[in-house]
Design a protein that fits this description.
Blueprint: E1 2-13, E2 16-27, E3 31-35, H1 42-49, E4 57-62, E5 65-66, E6 79-82, H2 94-99, H3 107-120, H4 136-149, E7 154-158, H5 166-183, E8 186-191, H6 194-200, E9 203-208, E10 211-216, H7 218-223, H8 228-234, E11 237-240, H9 244-247, E12 258-261, E13 266-268, E14 275-283, E15 288-294, E16 301-306, E17 317-321, E18 327-329
Parallel strand pairs: 3-8, 3-9, 6-7, 7-8
Antiparallel strand pairs: 1-2, 1-4, 4-5, 9-10, 11-12, 12-18, 13-17, 14-15, 14-17, 15-16
The structure holds adenosine-5'-diphosphate and magnesium ion.
Magnesium ion (MG) binds at residues 42-43, 158.
Length: 330
């Protein structure tokens, strides 16, 4: 069953086209991620799905309900919207923030629902605290609890982790993924963070040049990117001279470019046709990133990650060492 679908969705603001011909389906129970640069229109898509933005062309359907003509009858109340800045009420305490949206419930029912969520979200000791007394991670959990309290079927998550530091971001991401799966929700996550997209999503859609250029599972996109932009978005790449193909007995073609992921690019001291000169060493904490230039193909240089540099000096000569299975053709 399809939970949300967009068909030929387009939108402009003040005659400036933001998105064109965007189509995708989100299946029930799926975490669908929209990955795109800042300003590419990700939030605008979520705002349209939740009927905050209605001046678009094309179709949005919630299940089988055509949203544009049935804003009041489509089950928009089934949508929970989680924002990057939490959007909590600063003058209400944690308990009251969560129970705020629970209309038509008795005081006792509200309290039961809130207490259950506070336990589930590891917030019970903060029940009576003011919002400003909580850390960023706790505030985000309150904002998610507030949405989960009214039992939505669909979650729209607009860069929900971007205000958290990286350790907390990882923890919250895993926690949220488990929560979505446990509750059987359908979710659209928008982000510009590739790690987030690759680790949490069932499907990823990539926005480039005002439209979605590729949709697939994280692995499909990672291993079969449709173009260089998609390849680069999901992980660092090196472009290689096409002459490399003769070494692998692969038919040369003018129509594609040859790339390899940086983490699959290695070097050796064993001589081959692809000599490289080391031109830079950058310290990156757990590893070093070294830059090398092809001696015979001066337009091409590559990045290689190495653990230690005890046998490496600027201007040293190395040779390219990659496996055929790691080549990507675009
Ligand atoms: P993203 O979430 O990918 O960063 P947005 O959807 O917020 O991008 O915005 C996409 C573009 O549309 C931006 O250039 C933004 O300035 C513009 N935009 C968004 N909403 C409006 C609006 N209500 N009026 C005018 N321009 C808008
Ligand atoms: Mg946005």
């Amino acid at each position: 069953m399809i939970a949300i679908s967009l068909k030929n969705y387009s939108i402009s603001f003040q005659n400036t086209n933001i998105l064109s011909d965007v189509s995708f389906d989100v299946k029930e129970g799926e975490i669908f991620t929209i990955l795109g640069a800042s300003g590419s229109g990700k939030s605008t898509i979520l705002r349209s799905i939740s009927s905050l933005e209605n001046d678009y062309n094309g179709e949005i359907n919630l299940g089988t309900c055509f949203l544009k003509e049935n804003i009041n009858s489509c089950a928009t109340q089934n949508i929970g919207y989680i924002f990057q800045d939490y959007a909590l009420f600063p003058h209400l305490n944690v308990q009251d923030n969560i129970s705020f949206a629970l209309k038509n419930k008795s005081k006792k029912e509200k309290e039961n629902i809130v207490d259950k969520l506070l336990v589930q979200f590891d917030l019970i000791e903060h029940k009576y605290k003011q919002i400003h007394e909580l850390s960023g991670g706790q505030q985000q959990r309150v904002s998610i609890a507030r949405v989960i309290a009214y039992e939505p079927k669909i979650l729209l998550l607009d860069e929900p982790f971007s205000n958290l530091d990286s350790l907390l971001r990882n923890k919250t991401r895993i926690w949220l993924k488990n929560l979505i799966k446990k509750l059987g929700l359908s979710a659209i996550l928008v982000t510009h963070d590739k790690k987030e997209a690759l680790s949490i999503s069932d499907k990823i859609a990539i926005i480039q040049n005002k439209t979605i250029v590729q949709i697939g599972t994280p692995k499909e996109l990672f291993f079969n990117p449709i173009n260089k932009y998609v390849a680069q978005f999901l992980g660092a790449i090196n472009e290689l001279p096409k002459e490399i193909l003769s070494d692998f007995d692969i038919q040369n073609s003018k129509n594609f470019e040859v790339i390899v992921r940086v983490n699959k690019t290695h070097i050796t001291k064993e001589v081959n046709n692809f000599a490289l000169k080391l031109i830079d060493i950058s310290y990156c904490g757990d590893y070093y990133e070294i830059s090398l230039q092809f001696m015979n193909y001066k337009d091409f240089s590559i990045l290689v990650l190495v653990k230690n540099i005890s046998n490496i000096c600027i201007n040293d000569t190395f040779y390219l060492n990659i496996k055929e299975k790691d080549l990507l053709f675009i």
